[in-house]
Amino acid sequence: MEKQCVPDKELPEWAKPKPKGAPPSQVKKNLLSSAIQSAFIIGSFLLAFASLRNSLTWKFEELWGGSKTFYQDVWTYFYRDIFKGNRLLLSTFGVHAIIFAWFWLNSIFFFILDVFEPKFFMKYKIQEDKKPTRAQMLKAIRVVMFNQLVGLIFSFPIYYFVAKRGMTYDAEDLPTFQWFLVEMFVYIWVEEFGFYYSHRLGHHPRLYKHIHKIHHEWTAPISIIGIYNHWLEHIVSNILPVTLGPLIMGSHMGSLVMWTCIAITSTQISHGGYHLPLLPSPEAHDYHHLKFINNFGVLGVLDRLHGTDSMFVKSNAYDRHILLLGLEPAKALFPDDKKKGCEKKTN
After folding, report:
1. Contact, 169 vs 257, CB < 8 A?
2. Cβ neighbours, 10 Å, residue 164
3. Residue range 318-328, pLDDT digits in tens
4. Over 119-176, what HEC string results?
5. Which residues pair with 255 in a beta bridge?
6. For the chain, how long is the longest CA-to-CA vector?
7. What distance in Å separates the CA atoms of residue 149 and residue 236, rounded to the nearest whole number?
8. Of 25, 82, 112, 232, which one is least surrounded by beta carbons within 10 A?
9. CA dist., res. 283 & res. 149, Å (int)
10. Contact yes or no for 222/271 (Cβ under 8 A)
11. Where does the record place Basic and acidic residues bias (predicted)?
12. pTM
């Protein structure tokens, strides 16, 4: 006999289906409860972190210290040796050289999956029946590289605000481990607000057909199309939400580079089309591309607040929107047809 799916009662707690179709009053209650729980968890974490930082974080600091020394050496080489201390050139050509290399190195893994279709990974593909054509991929590469050029050009006016904000450049001014965590917390929420509202605005009928429709040419996204956009949307929805956090915090330029690389990795995973173990789930954004509705944010918090996940939470994709802690694919845990999926074949 061959098992076709995992029954609910056999699922681990982290994989059990989430409730669907709750009445509005219950949704509001759940939202308030989620907010309270989030505040409690974050508050508890911060208290624990503060009280135990001497005993708990020294290992991270030791690791960070080693990384920081390496990062300082690399940063000094870039800043002092290559760019001769020229902040403008480093903030524009230097930063974008790093971002360009990081983006395309990350893309290699997903290109291998899409082109060669290794059998082990195909079970994690979300839209199994869709494969990008050679023409689509070549067009995507052209659009993405054009937008990377747009990003380079736009970095010059951004530098004006970087200089006004007094962002630091010297290697010895790189942040401590604890402070970088604080900065990351701010960056993440600034990106969530900036991306959610600009993305939702892009779906307005008067704007969609002229601007955002380009991004939705891909109903089954691949990793590189996170920046497959109209050039104006690339500036408003991709560059600004990521850049504003470091500008608000007056961060070190190295922090901006590191955060941008993290944000790039996140968007490549969410557009990758594969729900892989131990990686953040791309189900929410993949659903957005498939249906053209719901899930406008990065974290999902503002979607829940504004009710722009109402269709998503009723779908199987919502159940699958979990961090996979085992090798079982999400589609096996939550098949499209639960009854049919759980039937067992007999010889």
Report:
1. no
2. 9
3. 999 999 999 99
4. HHHHCCECCCCCCCCHHHHHHHHHHHHHHHHHHHHHHHHHHHHHHHHCCCCCHHHCCC
5. none
6. 73
7. 15
8. 25
9. 30
10. yes
11. 1-16
12. 0.81
- Which residues 6+ apart lie within 8 Å of 89 measured at CB? 83
Helices 134-165 + 95-116 axis angle, to 10: 160
**Average pLDDT of the residues of the chain:** 85
- Beta partners for residue 125, in sequence order: 274
| Segment 142-192, tens digit of pLDDT | 999 999 999 999 999 999 999 999 999 998 898 888 898 999 999 999 999
Q: Which two tokens stand for residue 121?
A: 């990974």
Domain boundaries, the chain: 62-333
Task: Find the range with the poorest average confidence among 43-47, 102-106, 137-141, 248-252.
Answer: 43-47
Cα distances (Å, whole numbers) of residue 338 to 6, 184, 343: 9, 40, 9
Other C-beta atoms lying within 10 Å of the C-beta of residue 257 = 23
In tens, the pLDDT along 66-78 reads 556 777 888 898 8
Q: Which residue has the tokens 């681990």?
A: 12
Q: What are phi and psi of 284, to 5 degrees?
A: -65, -50
Between 198 and 292, residue with greater pLDDT: 198
Cα 94 from Cα 76, distance rounded (Å):
12
